[in-house]
Amino acid sequence: MISTMQVNYVSPEEAVALVESGETIVVQGSTSIPNVLLRALTARAAELRDVKIIVGFGVDPNDAPYAKREYIDSFRALNIFVPNNLRNAMREGVADTIPCFLGEVPSLFRSGLVPVDVTFLNVSEPDENGYCSYGISADIAFSGAECSRKVIAQVNKYMPRTFGDPVIHVSRLAAVCRGDEPLVEVPTPVPNEIERKIGALIAAEIPDGATLQIGVGGIPNAVIDALRDHKHLGLHTEAITDGVLPLIEKGIIDNSLKKILPGKSVGSLVLGSRHLYDYIDNNPDFVIRDVAWTNDPQIIRQNPRAMAINSAVEVDLTGQVCADSIGETIISGVGGQHDFMYGAALSEGGKCFIALPSTTQKGKSKIVARLAPGAGVVTTRFQTQYVVTEYGAAFLRNKPLAERAKALIAIAHPSVREDLERAAVERFGIGFLRLK
Asked: Could you give all domains of the chain from N- to C-terminal order, each with its CATH number?
């Protein structure tokens, strides 16, 4: 229901006129980046200096307008996750990244370690009481707005209303403009044969009554497809995608056995099609929460049989997982991988999976003797439980290093196993040889 109260709409240019040089802006992300505001801000480049723009996970078909070499003195782009629209800027050195777990970002704002002056939001129409919904993206925007002196919003008729944390009253907004731009839609990947094999292996390890954290891509969708005979599954995740809808519609995900918000599918952002956005609009079965809460391992662990399913760029023979870079080139962020891997490991009956094809599309092995020089470790060898490729599932928890190497070599592509064995002998010596 649309609000009948008076809202003082201004132009985007008038709204961003409140931003001053030297201030720090937090920008809402996911598929709802407030580009109307960002374009208007970029147009002020000549009159602004040293404005920091902090962004988290986000999807946009176009590069961020402010992250260009000619604006380097005006804007400094700082990533929490390195969204796709800032990867070119990262390669050019125009943008930088703040390494941190996504779940701890709100504490950086709330503690003042990262001071925030302004938050840009992309919100729903106000309801009859004057409250706007953040819709499909609470993640870092909720805490950003909480800690900002100025909150500037574009009201978007395409933004769904969601239940949970992400609402703000129009009286809290320093400026409001119209920003009726359709939300970015992300196609649902169709799993290939390799991904289906991996999905089936993971699904076989997931019991009825489990609570899922599941990511985005072909492998997560393959896992979902393989869960169609399961019962009483729950959803407590970071990103809610189209892939889970069939399981929800068939009652396979009913959230009946969760301890945290039973009966509700929980996430911090929504990522997918217009059908998904319409499905969650005013749907009380979905709850969108601050990422500091959804990704808190002490919250995650309270759901029994929590299952964390994540991906990787490469895994070395000791179980170290690189997921945010290709060598020194940073391509994403830690996101919630650590948060959910740790939380699921603490959960009663919980399990953690790292899922990846055995090779890249160019045929390079993703099970490696050593991580590439400069590669970042997202999940440490101390946390890794299951590593799954199309050749099987290696269970590493509590295994000595040499036994881990043997288990990982067994699920590597056959073409590289001999080379990996030589590397294991060189590294672990007789400890590996005695296992053969």
From this structure: 12-178 (3.40.1080.10), 193-433 (3.40.1080.20)
